[in-house]
Amino acid sequence: MNKQKAEAVIEAILFTMGDSVEVEKLAEVIEKDVQETEKILVGMKERYEKADRGISMIELDGSVQLCTKSNLYEYLIKIAKAPKKLTLTDALLETLSIVAYKQPVTRLEIERVRGVSCDHAINRLVEFDLIKEIGRMDAPGKPLLFGTTEQFLRSFGLKSLEELPELNPVQVEEFKHQAEEEVQLQLNI
Fold it and tell me: Within this chain, do residues 173 and 116 fall inside the same structural domain, yes or no?
């Protein structure tokens, strides 16, 4: 393999992996010895350091990794922090509401209120960074406790949880009554 092809292969590997890759492994792939591979890497690193390049190569204990040049982070953040478009289904919104108003809350407490399994909803809300595990309850089995995140506040335009709309006590009683009726129906089936 010629030097130009070896550089292309190394660059493709480092770009795809995202993490550091051992120089020895790179040497195996390009079928060169470690010293020759290191020389290729030095040349690549020198070219990346030029002002017209957006990436650099760092060395980490016998490994190398591609990364963004630190003087360009401000531009990267503009893209990396772009808000995600979240699609919240009714089930997700119901689950999120329960967590927001009752936190810290366990999965079992959420399921008791909703009357159905909430595994999927909780996992999706964690994935969307709207809720997170905030500890464990001091009870048998040490169940996980969930609460909302800063991303939840940002997404709903709230400065704090105190800004959540107050629940109408009459509506709360109606919701409880409806939930109890649903549970009774399920038990009778």
Answer: yes
